[in-house]
Amino acid sequence: MTWRAVLLFSILCVNAASAVDRLPTISVPRSTGAPVIDGNLDDPVWKSAGCAPLFFDWKTAHPAEVNTRGLLTWDDDSLYVAFECEEPLTDTIRASQTERDSMVYGDDCVQFFIQPHGHDEYFHIVLNARGTIYDSIRADGSWSAGILAAGSIGQGQWVAEMAIPWPAIGGPPSPEKPWMGMLARERRAREGNNFITSWPFSGGPFHNTGRFGKIVFVDQTATLHRLDVGERLPGMNRLTADVRGAAAGSSLSIQYGPDSADIASAALNAAGVVTIDYPVTLGTPRNLAIHLLGNGQTVLRQEIPTGVQTVLDVEQVEAAITLLSTLAARIDDKEVRATLTARRRQGVELVELARREIQEAVGAKRTLPVVEWEEMTEGLAAFQRDTLQPILWTRNPLIETRPESLPDVLESTKTVEIVAAGSDRESGALLISNLFGKREFEFRIHLGDPERQGDGHAPEDPRRDLSLGDIELAEAVMIETAGRGVIAEPVAPLDAAGRIKVPPGETREVWVTVDTTGVRPGRYHIPLHVDTVDFTDGPEPMQVDVRVRILEIDLPTKLPIRVYNFDYGRGALDGSGHLQEMLRSRVNVFFVPEVPLPDDEGNVDFSRLDHAVKRLSPHGVLFVEVWFMRDTGWQEPRFARWVEHLVAYMKGQGLGYDDWLLQIFDESMSDRFLECARNVKRVDPQVRIFQDHMDEPERIREFAPYIDVWCPVQHQLGQEEGLQAMRDTGRPVWTYECGTTPGFTPAKHRFMAWRAWHFELDGVTFWTYSACSWNDPSRVPNYGLYYPSSSGGPIPSKRWVAWREGLADYLYLRAYTAELDLLDGIPDLDREILRDAHALGESGEVNDIDRYDQVRRRLAERILELRN
């Protein structure tokens, strides 16, 4: 083994040993004589037997209100087990079963589970008050052992005892090889109820070996036969125990959990009743640990919950107080900082008050009643509860979110607002900040059924109401980027469980995306639930009202201009949802990859394009990119024949010249490009050539006879003379942005469509669509707008969503200007709106994503006003 493996193995062994040491434990001494199995516990051996003095309610883990004691001893022949069951209702004890292996477990009964050391199987024995036996190996009731058993009903109790011969359960135990087991009781004497208790605490079905306690067989040891742990309430409490067979050096102690030091203990020198006074304070954890030590070994170990139902976690509170100080120092807003400081001061005062009250109670040897404790700590409990709860807040989902992002206020939002047109997709964001948690919280995010508010729709409206099928929940996943650090960037749909983890002190972002295609306009409310997975120790469930307003504006499913993304990753061809995503985003120009080159004679087989052409051509224009002419210049007759073959191939696929474009050079207006373009047109003047560069007007005019689509990069649009020269040719003018990585802001992507509208262009393009890596190391180019999913489909980046939102913005702008065209003149209000809209298309410096939403909302409201 390597040294790392040895180290890991050692750590695992230590951890495993520690886990076993913390198990509930009983030491069982050897008997000096066999008891008579008659349902009577007067035999001397039972007075010194090992004992489980308390049974625990299977739901609450608290000591049972009606207790049971389990007794165990052994000799060379048998294991002896007895149960002493308190029962105030002896007249109604159910003990109907008299035949062996009948349904004894349907009566008032006791159950014993024992698993020998090193064995996978365990043995299960059930007795009722008549001593009727049911026995099995696991659930196999065909097994029977030579067990002797008896039972009896007495005054205020009933008893069951048994002798189990060692050969029936694998032979006698070996020293220092503990067995595992459980002692349990089902109490049915109270009509209509079945009270289930056990040692140790089962927390559910008894047939769970993971809940068994440790049973250690020894020759002799101290035993603890009665245990009363007092009220277990804040202040001073008293533990009373009946200890038997204690030798010098034995001790009984009580601890705050298994790993803490003793908070109170008593040395034991002889048998007898022992009392220990112990405090329950503000810092007491959920469980107290009772530990009986005899002859240098553990005789009994047991954890017992305190009697306070809502245990205050001072570490949690003090961590929250410290964080409030940290937050106050980081926030610039004076009002928010003052609120945080006041909240911190309140927490400090509440902690000091509670500590003082408990110290006084301990000093007076008084236990605080539950009502007094709850009244005294009501403010502190509220402070702890509030700081344990995550802060839910909302903002524009396209704003950059980091793990350390903080809300402006420390109050959770009640609503998430989403406004959308028809045939649109819009998102809202719910941010979850685990500001004060000491550990990672896991939440389940899920939606209730949408509810429409009011009606008022036309009876003939064929559209349907919003349903859960129209809504998607996603997480904006945190990734490492080279340019911007750790940010929320891929918008990955939540799985069916809807689980999301929020580390302590960090924020995570959930998206709610609504697809309004075919949905009736109106207002809808959808409850969004944020439930903690750890319902016992985690935050309380929370709910937010998602309010969706669908406007009486139906966006066209197709854009009036050309929209294009370079797709080097062949996403649209792989059948994994990429093409559907492009079409839903209104893309209408499609990249054709891997175009074959001509051989030396100019011959070429274009059949390998069949799949791409057949899949893409029904949806828009094909973009055919080849750069071999850039490397060599025009070669006759080789390249001429290639062009002829390409034209013939497209015609054979049923495509005319308007259905495809040819790009032969990139970002160039070189002489070689001019020569090649001239020769392509000589071969076939109708072949359309794409060009993506802005040069001087004179150079543009030289190229004009050969270029069919101009596409300058967006920052070149400010070169007015060059742009005008392109327009003068009468050919379409597009624009594009070169490069998108996680380091680019979403605002830059949304800006592009506004840019195209502002300059009245005929198309808009983004390079590129291909996949990003799931991290963004600076040494690897990471151009792309989506992240690959495990199934190969697209997980959109925030940048892709912003690009898509910009295309929807363009449709709002076109709808708005169409309404203005119907007016006799443009009102001052609309001049102001147009001025704001053009400002967004004019300046690439607008990085405030909220600004785009603000102007779009004004456009939407104004469209509705103009349409009455």
Explain how this protein is built.
There is one protein chain. β16 (250-255) and β17 (262-268) form a beta hairpin. The longest helix has 30 residues, at 334-363. With 868 residues, the protein is α+β, with helices and mostly antiparallel strands. The chain has four domains: 23-220, Immunoglobulin-like (Sandwich), CATH 2.60.40; 314-388, no CATH class; 391-554, Immunoglobulin-like (Sandwich); 562-866, Alpha-Beta Barrel (TIM Barrel). Strands 1, 3, 6, 7, 8, 11, 12, 13, 16, 17, 19 and 20 form a twelve-stranded mixed beta sheet that branches. Strands 22, 24, 25, 28, 30 and 31 form a six-stranded mixed beta sheet that branches. α5 (370-376) packs across α6 (378-388), α14 crosses α16 (828-842) and α15 packs parallel to α17 (849-866). It has 17 helices and 41 strands.
Write the SSE topology.
Layout: H1 3-21, E1 25-29, H2 44-47, E2 50-52, E3 56-57, E4 68-74, E5 78-86, E6 109-115, E7 123-128, E8 133-137, E9 148-154, E10 157-165, E11 179-187, E12 195-199, E13 213-218, E14 223-228, E15 235-244, E16 250-255, E17 262-268, E18 272-280, E19 287-294, E20 297-305, H3 314-330, H4 334-363, H5 370-376, H6 378-388, E21 391-393, E22 415-422, E23 425-433, E24 441-447, E25 451-453, E26 471-481, E27 485-493, E28 499-502, E29 507-515, E30 522-532, E31 542-554, E32 562-565, H7 578-584, E33 589-592, H8 610-616, E34 621-625, H9 628-632, H10 638-652, E35 660-663, H11 671-683, E36 690-691, H12 697-703, E37 709-710, H13 720-728, E38 734-738, H14 746-758, E39 763-767, E40 786-788, E41 794-796, H15 798-821, H16 828-842, H17 849-866
Parallel strand pairs: 1-13, 22-31, 32-33, 32-39, 33-34, 34-35, 36-37, 38-39
Antiparallel strand pairs: 1-20, 2-4, 3-12, 4-5, 5-10, 6-7, 6-11, 7-8, 9-10, 11-12, 11-13, 14-15, 15-18, 16-17, 16-19, 19-20, 21-23, 23-29, 24-28, 24-30, 25-30, 26-27, 26-29, 30-31, 40-41
Helix pairs in contact: 3-4, 5-6, 12-13, 14-15, 14-16, 15-17, 16-17
